[in-house]
Amino acid sequence: MGGNLAGRLLSRRFPKSERELVVGSLSTSMLAERFGTPCYVFDAAILRERIAAVRAALGERVGVLFALKANPNAAIAQLLHQGGAGAEVASGGEILIARRAGVPGDQMQFAGPGKDAEELAIALEHGVLLNVESLAELRAVNAAAVEGGTQARVALRVNPPASLTGSRMRMSGGSAKFGIDAEVLEEVARTAESMDSVRLEGLHTYAGTQTFDHEGWLANARFLIEQAEAVEASLGRPLTSLNFGGGFGVPVFDKDAEFDLEAAGRGLQELIAESERRHFVELGRYLVAEAGVYLTRVTYVKESHGKRFAILDGGMHQHAAAAGMGTVIRRPFPMVRASQLDAAPSESECVLGGPLCTPADVFPTAAGLGDVAAGELVAFLSSGAYGLTFSNVLFLGHPTPPELLVDGDDVHVIREGGRPEDALRGQRLPGE
Ligand SMILES: Cc1ncc(COP(=O)(O)O)c(C=O)c1O
Fold first, then answer.
1. Rounded mean pLDDT of 97-118?
2. Contact between 304 and 87 (Cβ < 8 Å)
3. CA of residue 209 to ligand 1 center, whole Å
4. Is 157 in the pocket of ligand 1 (CB under 6 A)?
5. Which of 27, 68, 158, 232 could, after both became Cys, cross-link 94 (CB 3.0–4.6 A)?
6. Which atom of ligand 1 is the closest one to the Cα of 171?
7. Which of 3.10.310.10, 2.30.30.40, 2.40.37.10, 3.90.226.10 is the CATH number of 3-42+290-417?
8. What confidence tens digit (pLDDT) does each residue in 393-425 have?
9. Domain chopping of the chain, boundaries
């Protein structure tokens, strides 16, 4: 077994696992046999538990939006919507996925610094709230609404002056491509107010992902409320909607802390106790990460200069984060020998590599993983967020893995796996 976090995840999230990893009530060896590897497997029960836990902690006055970017699969979004989540979308495509999942347009919010004309038209058609990130975008939104003969629902995304502490990837503070600088917020709000086809509903902020410090997160929320009060004073009317962002941290490395959801929930409820507005958070990773497993099989084992290499059938083109993309220090993701959890740990080093012809396609490997053998299954846990769609799936033309949703002892294919001929999809020779 690889690492303490992997052990914790097994007992907390996959308690039926004894000798092998069991998702819901289904063994991963059966899933691998039936659907092939590599594949992504998601557990419906964990998704239901996560959305219920978040809603309970934040209280009924806070709406929860699922940030589809973490896992843009309609079946996952549908399940979370059934659990009470709306959607935070980042493209026209994600609006369509969320609609497919049954989320009404008026329960969606759209953030992103470069929304184009086609995306604005789709958003306006569905009545999606646009979290506007610049004055230039505000003008484009107004123009699109005039052209569409409609009113745009708008909130202004605020770039706070000082960065939130505790976010591993900061996306705010100082000069940033995201949001409107707090210093000019009132002025932009007055401009929005003067536009005939824009209805300014409120403010939005998103400080960064992998936030483990709930105090830092709450400080950013407090800041947003102060900004709302200043804008209200300036406009002479109340705002109706505040979105505090997301980014609640999920441990992926052994030393990562747990995000204190209860404390964040209590703190947020205190902050909004006097407010009449509608309040939102938009969470990706926290809702879906621990529900997902990336399941691979060892194709070959070899020795090179005294080091053992196990080559998996999955790689960085399907799970870039587990190969270290986006991190400065490459540390092992929680991983287990899924078909023999009870295998003895080994002192000798075993390197897990993917099938791609690049040295980057190596998974930082947990110490003591053991002498992994050809044919056995290796599973990457905590892989339900920023997995397949965060990866360079077109690189080297491998078929994409299927995505499976396990619900107790049922399994659904929620994204079909690809075929080798997909590498040619959409390609044309000149003259064709
Ligand atoms: C605007 C916005 N909202 C929500 C999210 C989701 O963040 P997380 O998955 O960390 O909760 C992101 C992630 O980048 C984001 O940029």
1. 98
2. no
3. 6
4. no
5. 68
6. 16
7. 2.40.37.10
8. 999 999 999 999 999 999 999 999 999 999 999
9. 3-42+290-417, 104-283
